[in-house]
Design goal:
There is one protein chain. This protein is α+β, with helices and mostly antiparallel strands and 139 residues long. It contains seven helices and three strands, in the order βααβααβααα. The chain has one domain: Alpha-Beta Plaits. The chain is globular, with a radius of gyration of 14 Å. 34% of the residues are buried. Bound molecules: uridine-5'-diphosphate and magnesium ion. Uridine-5'-diphosphate binds next to α4.
Amino acid sequence: MATNRTFTMLKPDAVANGYIGGILKMINDAGFSIIAMKYTKLSAATAGEFYEIHKERPFYGELVSYMSSGPIVAVILEKENAIASFRTLIGATDPTKADEGTIRKIYAKSIAANAVHGSDSDENAQIEGDFFFSKLERF
Ligand code: UDP
Ligand code: MG
């Protein structure tokens, strides 16, 4: 199986509620290696650009204002089958539908403020990681 990479953000609700340590522990315990990590804050413009793929969806405006409402932690992760493995670890978009033991089940408040992002494909993981990190920031 290919060792590959995914991209995640710990979203503003998770940071504000003090869940950075708990979520990173779950990610480490699941066997992911950290390739790059940054504590930062999106502006409305940069959040809008990051979520451009969703701009026709009804929740886009709310998503952009929420994602620029406070600091986030951006992370590139590596593991065998990283995309699917990480999506399993985080659980469904809507935390009320997420499996027991998943990050969103444990830490998310709502479908919008759902604690973490996870890339949905190798191509998007590359694009999303490149959005935040230069090659000098990856180890
Ligand atoms: N989102 C929302 N309302 C919805 C669906 C999604 O606010 O009805 C937000 C939520 O924060 C989600 C993000 O938009 O994580 C991106 O949506 P996507 O469908 O890509 O879900 P994900 O891949 O994050 O599970
Ligand atoms: Mg998605």
